[in-house]
Amino acid sequence: MIGYVTLGTNDLERAAKFYDRLCGLLDTGRMMEFDTFIAWGKPGGGAGIGLTKPYDGKPATVGNGVMVALAARDKAHVDEIYNAAIEMGAKDEGAPGPRGDDGFYAGYFRDPDGNKLNAFVMG
């Protein structure tokens, strides 16, 4: 079971605004905050997401092949999350739509630091 996922950022203030809005759309607020780290989640509410300036002081970089998937309520919610991300400057990585034949519906994007995310719903 995943407790939380942490992504690196080089601009915590900018990234926090981006994730405040996305997590707000997911009915999730900040649960922890320090000078170099912010986390969103709900105690007992599943995996959370954190942003941090790297501990070693070096620039944050994007992990190739790494992606965070945000569980949406339905297809309209996927669209809303994806559109909000794009509106805030995220880069399109695949507009919302069906993927495969199993009822999987998702929209893919990269946050302002280049981290890849998607909003999805199954069935």
From TrEMBL:
UniProt-listed CDD domains: VOC_like
Source species, domain of life: Bacteria
Domain VOC: 1-122
PANTHER family xrefs: GLYOXALASE FAMILY PROTEIN (AFU_ORTHOLOGUE AFUA_5G14830)
Protein name: VOC family protein
Organism, as annotated: Marinicauda pacifica
